[in-house]
UniProtKB/TrEMBL annotation:
DHHA1 domain: residues covered: 232-298
Domain of life: Bacteria
Domain DDH: 14-155
Official protein name in the record: Phosphoesterase RecJ-like protein
Pfam families: DHH (PF01368), DHHA1 (PF02272)
GO MF assignments: nucleic acid binding
Xref: SUPFAM superfamilies: DHH phosphoesterases
InterPro entries: DDH_dom (IPR001667), DHH_sf (IPR038763), DHHA1_dom (IPR003156), Oligoribo/pAp-PDE_c-di-AMP_PDE (IPR051319)
Length: 320
Protein backbone atom coordinates (compact mmCIF):
# COMPACT_ATOMS: atom_id res chain seq x y z
CA UNK A 1 0.00 0.00 0.00
CA UNK A 2 2.79 2.39 0.97
CA UNK A 3 4.39 2.35 -2.50
CA UNK A 4 1.08 3.24 -4.12
CA UNK A 5 0.46 5.98 -1.52
CA UNK A 6 3.89 7.49 -2.20
CA UNK A 7 3.53 7.53 -5.97
CA UNK A 8 0.06 9.12 -5.64
CA UNK A 9 1.36 11.72 -3.17
CA UNK A 10 3.98 12.81 -5.71
CA UNK A 11 1.50 13.24 -8.60
CA UNK A 12 -0.56 16.34 -9.32
CA UNK A 13 -2.57 15.16 -12.32
CA UNK A 14 -3.94 11.64 -12.03
CA UNK A 15 -5.80 9.57 -14.61
CA UNK A 16 -8.00 6.77 -13.25
CA UNK A 17 -8.95 3.75 -15.30
CA UNK A 18 -10.76 0.50 -14.61
CA UNK A 19 -11.99 -2.57 -16.50
CA UNK A 20 -14.35 -2.81 -19.47
CA UNK A 21 -18.01 -3.63 -18.72
CA UNK A 22 -17.50 -1.80 -15.42
CA UNK A 23 -19.33 -3.01 -12.31
CA UNK A 24 -20.15 -1.17 -9.09
CA UNK A 25 -16.66 -1.69 -7.69
CA UNK A 26 -14.86 -0.57 -10.86
CA UNK A 27 -16.89 2.64 -10.99
CA UNK A 28 -17.17 3.10 -7.22
CA UNK A 29 -13.42 2.77 -6.60
CA UNK A 30 -12.48 4.99 -9.57
CA UNK A 31 -14.96 7.74 -8.74
CA UNK A 32 -14.27 7.38 -5.01
CA UNK A 33 -10.54 7.88 -5.57
CA UNK A 34 -11.30 10.80 -7.93
CA UNK A 35 -13.24 12.60 -5.17
CA UNK A 36 -10.54 11.83 -2.59
CA UNK A 37 -7.77 13.19 -4.81
CA UNK A 38 -9.74 16.31 -5.69
CA UNK A 39 -10.27 16.95 -1.98
CA UNK A 40 -6.45 16.81 -1.73
CA UNK A 41 -6.23 19.60 -4.33
CA UNK A 42 -5.11 17.29 -7.13
CA UNK A 43 -6.50 17.04 -10.65
CA UNK A 44 -8.14 13.69 -11.31
CA UNK A 45 -10.21 12.28 -14.15
CA UNK A 46 -11.83 8.93 -14.72
CA UNK A 47 -11.77 7.04 -18.00
CA UNK A 48 -14.17 4.20 -18.75
CA UNK A 49 -14.58 2.39 -22.04
CA UNK A 50 -18.15 1.54 -20.88
CA UNK A 51 -20.88 0.62 -21.39
CA UNK A 52 -21.93 1.97 -17.99
CA UNK A 53 -24.82 -0.02 -16.43
CA UNK A 54 -27.79 2.24 -15.76
CA UNK A 55 -27.87 1.46 -12.02
CA UNK A 56 -24.55 3.27 -11.57
CA UNK A 57 -25.42 6.47 -13.44
CA UNK A 58 -26.45 8.08 -10.12
CA UNK A 59 -22.92 7.88 -8.67
CA UNK A 60 -21.64 11.34 -7.73
CA UNK A 61 -19.15 12.53 -10.36
CA UNK A 62 -20.46 10.21 -13.10
CA UNK A 63 -20.83 13.26 -15.37
CA UNK A 64 -17.04 13.58 -15.27
CA UNK A 65 -16.40 10.04 -16.53
CA UNK A 66 -15.10 10.15 -20.07
CA UNK A 67 -14.37 7.62 -22.79
CA UNK A 68 -11.93 10.03 -24.44
CA UNK A 69 -8.21 9.60 -23.80
CA UNK A 70 -6.20 12.59 -22.57
CA UNK A 71 -3.08 13.76 -24.41
CA UNK A 72 0.13 11.98 -23.45
CA UNK A 73 1.85 14.30 -20.99
CA UNK A 74 -1.44 15.66 -19.60
CA UNK A 75 -1.07 13.49 -16.51
CA UNK A 76 1.74 12.51 -14.14
CA UNK A 77 0.27 9.18 -13.16
CA UNK A 78 -2.35 6.63 -14.15
CA UNK A 79 -3.99 4.45 -11.49
CA UNK A 80 -5.51 1.19 -12.70
CA UNK A 81 -8.31 0.05 -10.35
CA UNK A 82 -10.16 -3.27 -9.95
CA UNK A 83 -7.93 -4.93 -12.58
CA UNK A 84 -4.21 -5.39 -13.08
CA UNK A 85 -3.85 -6.38 -16.72
CA UNK A 86 -3.83 -3.38 -19.12
CA UNK A 87 -5.87 -5.37 -21.68
CA UNK A 88 -8.75 -5.54 -19.13
CA UNK A 89 -9.21 -1.76 -19.55
CA UNK A 90 -10.07 -2.12 -23.25
CA UNK A 91 -8.01 -1.86 -26.44
CA UNK A 92 -7.83 1.95 -26.58
CA UNK A 93 -6.61 2.49 -23.03
CA UNK A 94 -4.37 -0.59 -23.15
CA UNK A 95 -2.25 1.00 -25.88
CA UNK A 96 -2.30 4.30 -24.00
CA UNK A 97 -1.25 2.77 -20.65
CA UNK A 98 1.74 1.10 -22.31
CA UNK A 99 3.09 4.55 -23.26
CA UNK A 100 2.80 6.12 -19.79
CA UNK A 101 5.90 6.43 -17.61
CA UNK A 102 4.03 5.87 -14.32
CA UNK A 103 1.20 3.48 -13.59
CA UNK A 104 0.02 2.42 -10.12
CA UNK A 105 -2.34 -0.51 -9.52
CA UNK A 106 -4.92 -1.11 -6.79
CA UNK A 107 -6.75 -4.41 -7.24
CA UNK A 108 -8.10 -7.50 -5.45
CA UNK A 109 -8.08 -10.07 -8.28
CA UNK A 110 -6.05 -13.29 -8.40
CA UNK A 111 -3.13 -13.70 -10.80
CA UNK A 112 0.43 -12.59 -11.40
CA UNK A 113 1.10 -8.84 -11.68
CA UNK A 114 3.72 -7.82 -14.24
CA UNK A 115 2.78 -4.24 -15.00
CA UNK A 116 3.10 -0.83 -13.39
CA UNK A 117 5.63 1.00 -11.20
CA UNK A 118 3.72 0.42 -7.95
CA UNK A 119 1.16 -2.31 -7.36
CA UNK A 120 -1.03 -3.08 -4.37
CA UNK A 121 -2.84 -6.24 -5.43
CA UNK A 122 -4.31 -8.45 -2.72
CA UNK A 123 -7.10 -11.02 -3.24
CA UNK A 124 -7.68 -10.92 0.53
CA UNK A 125 -9.82 -7.82 0.07
CA UNK A 126 -13.49 -8.06 -0.88
CA UNK A 127 -13.46 -4.97 -3.10
CA UNK A 128 -11.09 -2.44 -4.59
CA UNK A 129 -13.32 0.18 -2.96
CA UNK A 130 -12.49 -1.37 0.42
CA UNK A 131 -8.78 -0.96 -0.38
CA UNK A 132 -9.23 2.67 -1.47
CA UNK A 133 -11.06 3.42 1.79
CA UNK A 134 -8.23 1.87 3.84
CA UNK A 135 -5.68 3.83 1.78
CA UNK A 136 -7.55 7.08 2.49
CA UNK A 137 -7.68 6.26 6.21
CA UNK A 138 -3.98 5.31 6.35
CA UNK A 139 -3.02 8.54 4.59
CA UNK A 140 -5.36 10.68 6.68
CA UNK A 141 -7.31 11.91 3.63
CA UNK A 142 -10.68 13.54 4.22
CA UNK A 143 -13.47 11.18 3.04
CA UNK A 144 -16.19 13.42 1.58
CA UNK A 145 -19.84 12.25 1.42
CA UNK A 146 -19.49 11.92 -2.39
CA UNK A 147 -16.41 9.70 -2.03
CA UNK A 148 -18.16 7.69 0.69
CA UNK A 149 -21.23 7.03 -1.50
CA UNK A 150 -19.06 5.80 -4.40
CA UNK A 151 -16.88 3.58 -2.20
CA UNK A 152 -19.84 2.15 -0.28
CA UNK A 153 -21.47 1.19 -3.60
CA UNK A 154 -18.31 -0.70 -4.59
CA UNK A 155 -18.11 -2.56 -1.29
CA UNK A 156 -21.82 -3.34 -1.29
CA UNK A 157 -21.95 -4.69 -4.85
CA UNK A 158 -18.73 -6.79 -4.70
CA UNK A 159 -19.95 -8.49 -1.51
CA UNK A 160 -23.43 -9.13 -2.96
CA UNK A 161 -24.84 -6.75 -0.35
CA UNK A 162 -22.69 -8.19 2.44
CA UNK A 163 -23.75 -11.80 1.74
CA UNK A 164 -20.76 -13.45 -0.01
CA UNK A 165 -17.93 -15.36 1.69
CA UNK A 166 -15.68 -12.31 1.20
CA UNK A 167 -17.76 -10.34 3.76
CA UNK A 168 -15.23 -10.14 6.60
CA UNK A 169 -15.52 -8.16 9.84
CA UNK A 170 -13.22 -5.61 8.19
CA UNK A 171 -15.75 -5.15 5.39
CA UNK A 172 -18.42 -4.20 7.94
CA UNK A 173 -16.02 -1.79 9.64
CA UNK A 174 -15.18 -0.14 6.32
CA UNK A 175 -18.90 0.06 5.43
CA UNK A 176 -19.68 1.58 8.84
CA UNK A 177 -16.90 4.16 8.40
CA UNK A 178 -18.26 5.05 4.95
CA UNK A 179 -21.80 5.39 6.32
CA UNK A 180 -20.37 7.61 9.06
CA UNK A 181 -18.62 9.71 6.38
CA UNK A 182 -21.97 10.31 4.65
CA UNK A 183 -22.64 7.40 2.30
CA UNK A 184 -26.36 7.43 1.45
CA UNK A 185 -27.23 3.81 2.19
CA UNK A 186 -30.94 3.73 1.30
CA UNK A 187 -30.69 5.93 -1.83
CA UNK A 188 -27.77 3.75 -3.05
CA UNK A 189 -29.80 0.55 -2.55
CA UNK A 190 -32.79 1.98 -4.40
CA UNK A 191 -30.65 2.86 -7.43
CA UNK A 192 -28.53 -0.28 -7.51
CA UNK A 193 -31.27 -2.82 -6.74
CA UNK A 194 -34.21 -1.23 -8.56
CA UNK A 195 -36.53 -3.69 -10.33
CA UNK A 196 -35.74 -3.51 -14.05
CA UNK A 197 -38.38 -5.33 -16.10
CA UNK A 198 -36.10 -6.08 -19.08
CA UNK A 199 -33.64 -7.81 -16.72
CA UNK A 200 -36.41 -10.00 -15.35
CA UNK A 201 -37.39 -10.86 -18.93
CA UNK A 202 -33.77 -11.82 -19.63
CA UNK A 203 -33.72 -13.90 -16.48
CA UNK A 204 -36.81 -15.68 -17.78
CA UNK A 205 -34.93 -16.61 -20.96
CA UNK A 206 -31.92 -17.71 -18.93
CA UNK A 207 -34.15 -19.99 -16.82
CA UNK A 208 -35.77 -21.39 -20.00
CA UNK A 209 -32.26 -22.29 -21.24
CA UNK A 210 -31.08 -23.71 -17.91
CA UNK A 211 -29.28 -27.05 -18.04
CA UNK A 212 -28.54 -28.81 -14.75
CA UNK A 213 -26.03 -31.67 -14.71
CA UNK A 214 -23.65 -33.49 -12.36
CA UNK A 215 -26.54 -34.39 -10.03
CA UNK A 216 -27.69 -30.78 -10.05
CA UNK A 217 -24.32 -29.39 -9.02
CA UNK A 218 -23.54 -27.67 -12.34
CA UNK A 219 -25.90 -25.01 -13.75
CA UNK A 220 -25.29 -23.74 -17.28
CA UNK A 221 -27.26 -21.31 -19.38
CA UNK A 222 -26.78 -18.93 -22.26
CA UNK A 223 -27.99 -15.73 -23.88
CA UNK A 224 -27.68 -14.98 -27.59
CA UNK A 225 -27.53 -11.57 -29.24
CA UNK A 226 -31.01 -12.34 -30.52
CA UNK A 227 -32.27 -12.80 -26.91
CA UNK A 228 -30.78 -9.43 -25.93
CA UNK A 229 -32.35 -7.74 -28.91
CA UNK A 230 -35.82 -9.24 -28.30
CA UNK A 231 -35.83 -7.94 -24.73
CA UNK A 232 -34.22 -4.60 -25.62
CA UNK A 233 -31.36 -5.25 -23.18
CA UNK A 234 -27.59 -4.80 -23.42
CA UNK A 235 -24.59 -6.65 -21.98
CA UNK A 236 -24.71 -4.48 -18.85
CA UNK A 237 -28.09 -6.02 -17.98
CA UNK A 238 -26.62 -9.47 -17.34
CA UNK A 239 -24.40 -8.87 -14.33
CA UNK A 240 -26.75 -10.40 -11.76
CA UNK A 241 -28.04 -13.34 -13.78
CA UNK A 242 -25.18 -15.77 -13.14
CA UNK A 243 -25.52 -15.13 -9.39
CA UNK A 244 -29.12 -16.23 -9.59
CA UNK A 245 -28.04 -19.54 -11.14
CA UNK A 246 -25.51 -20.19 -8.37
CA UNK A 247 -28.21 -19.75 -5.73
CA UNK A 248 -30.32 -22.65 -7.03
CA UNK A 249 -30.29 -25.16 -4.14
CA UNK A 250 -27.72 -27.90 -4.80
CA UNK A 251 -25.79 -25.93 -7.42
CA UNK A 252 -22.07 -25.75 -6.67
CA UNK A 253 -20.89 -24.06 -9.89
CA UNK A 254 -22.77 -21.94 -12.41
CA UNK A 255 -21.75 -20.52 -15.76
CA UNK A 256 -23.47 -18.16 -18.15
CA UNK A 257 -22.41 -17.95 -21.80
CA UNK A 258 -23.30 -14.92 -23.85
CA UNK A 259 -22.61 -13.94 -27.43
CA UNK A 260 -20.79 -10.64 -27.86
CA UNK A 261 -21.36 -8.28 -30.79
CA UNK A 262 -17.84 -9.06 -32.05
CA UNK A 263 -18.63 -12.74 -32.48
CA UNK A 264 -16.89 -13.98 -29.33
CA UNK A 265 -18.40 -15.59 -26.22
CA UNK A 266 -18.20 -14.04 -22.76
CA UNK A 267 -18.17 -16.64 -20.00
CA UNK A 268 -19.18 -15.72 -16.43
CA UNK A 269 -18.57 -18.36 -13.77
CA UNK A 270 -19.60 -18.54 -10.12
CA UNK A 271 -18.77 -21.09 -7.42
CA UNK A 272 -20.39 -21.63 -4.07
CA UNK A 273 -16.92 -22.13 -2.56
CA UNK A 274 -15.60 -25.63 -3.21
CA UNK A 275 -14.39 -25.22 -6.81
CA UNK A 276 -11.89 -22.48 -7.75
CA UNK A 277 -13.38 -21.03 -10.96
CA UNK A 278 -10.55 -18.49 -11.32
CA UNK A 279 -8.28 -21.44 -12.22
CA UNK A 280 -10.38 -22.21 -15.28
CA UNK A 281 -10.56 -18.51 -16.23
CA UNK A 282 -6.83 -17.84 -15.79
CA UNK A 283 -5.87 -20.97 -17.77
CA UNK A 284 -7.80 -19.53 -20.71
CA UNK A 285 -6.46 -15.97 -20.42
CA UNK A 286 -9.22 -14.49 -18.22
CA UNK A 287 -9.24 -13.83 -14.51
CA UNK A 288 -11.22 -13.18 -11.36
CA UNK A 289 -11.59 -14.65 -7.90
CA UNK A 290 -12.02 -18.17 -6.51
CA UNK A 291 -15.82 -17.80 -6.46
CA UNK A 292 -16.38 -15.42 -9.39
CA UNK A 293 -14.36 -15.37 -12.57
CA UNK A 294 -14.71 -14.75 -16.26
CA UNK A 295 -13.11 -14.89 -19.66
CA UNK A 296 -13.97 -13.92 -23.21
CA UNK A 297 -13.21 -16.56 -25.84
CA UNK A 298 -13.23 -16.66 -29.63
CA UNK A 299 -15.48 -19.35 -31.05
CA UNK A 300 -19.14 -20.24 -31.32
CA UNK A 301 -21.49 -20.48 -28.37
CA UNK A 302 -21.91 -24.27 -28.48
CA UNK A 303 -18.17 -24.94 -28.77
CA UNK A 304 -17.15 -22.63 -25.94
CA UNK A 305 -19.96 -23.99 -23.78
CA UNK A 306 -18.77 -27.58 -24.34
CA UNK A 307 -15.15 -26.73 -23.54
CA UNK A 308 -15.95 -24.82 -20.34
CA UNK A 309 -18.50 -27.43 -19.21
CA UNK A 310 -15.82 -30.13 -19.51
CA UNK A 311 -13.38 -28.09 -17.40
CA UNK A 312 -15.99 -27.34 -14.73
CA UNK A 313 -17.08 -31.02 -14.58
CA UNK A 314 -13.45 -31.98 -13.99
CA UNK A 315 -13.31 -29.45 -11.14
CA UNK A 316 -16.46 -30.97 -9.62
CA UNK A 317 -15.21 -34.54 -10.07
CA UNK A 318 -12.01 -33.67 -8.19
CA UNK A 319 -14.23 -33.00 -5.19
CA UNK A 320 -16.00 -36.34 -5.19
P1 LIG B 1 -18.23 -11.36 -14.38
O1 LIG B 1 -18.55 -12.79 -14.58
O2 LIG B 1 -19.17 -10.68 -13.43
O3 LIG B 1 -18.01 -10.61 -15.64
O4 LIG B 1 -16.81 -11.34 -13.68
C1 LIG B 1 -16.51 -12.08 -12.53
C2 LIG B 1 -15.11 -11.74 -12.08
O5 LIG B 1 -14.16 -12.15 -13.05
C3 LIG B 1 -14.89 -10.24 -11.90
O6 LIG B 1 -14.05 -10.07 -10.80
C4 LIG B 1 -14.22 -9.83 -13.18
O7 LIG B 1 -13.39 -8.72 -12.98
C5 LIG B 1 -13.45 -11.07 -13.59
N1 LIG B 1 -13.44 -11.22 -15.06
C6 LIG B 1 -14.52 -11.38 -15.86
N2 LIG B 1 -14.15 -11.49 -17.17
C7 LIG B 1 -12.81 -11.38 -17.18
C8 LIG B 1 -11.83 -11.39 -18.24
O8 LIG B 1 -12.13 -11.52 -19.43
N3 LIG B 1 -10.54 -11.24 -17.85
C9 LIG B 1 -10.17 -11.07 -16.55
N4 LIG B 1 -8.87 -10.92 -16.25
N5 LIG B 1 -11.05 -11.06 -15.54
C10 LIG B 1 -12.36 -11.21 -15.84
MN1 LIG C 1 -14.98 -5.44 -11.07
MN1 LIG D 1 -13.93 -5.63 -7.56
Amino acid sequence: MKQVATIIAQAERVWLVSHVLPDGDALGSSLGLMHLLKAQGKQARVFSAGPIPEEYLFLPGMDQVSDVLPQIGDQDLAVMLDCHQPQRTGPVSEAFLAKLPQVAIIDHHQGAVDFGQAAWVDPGFAATSEMVTLLAQAEGWDITPEAATCLFTGVQTDTGSFRYANTTPRVFRVAADLAQAGAQVWPISQEVYATRPKRLSLLGRIMDNLELSQEGRLALSQITLDDLEKVGAGPADLEQAVETLRLIPGVEVSALFRQTPKGAVKVSMRSRGKVDVSRVAIELGGGGHKNAAGVTLEGNLAGVRRDIATRLRLGLEELS
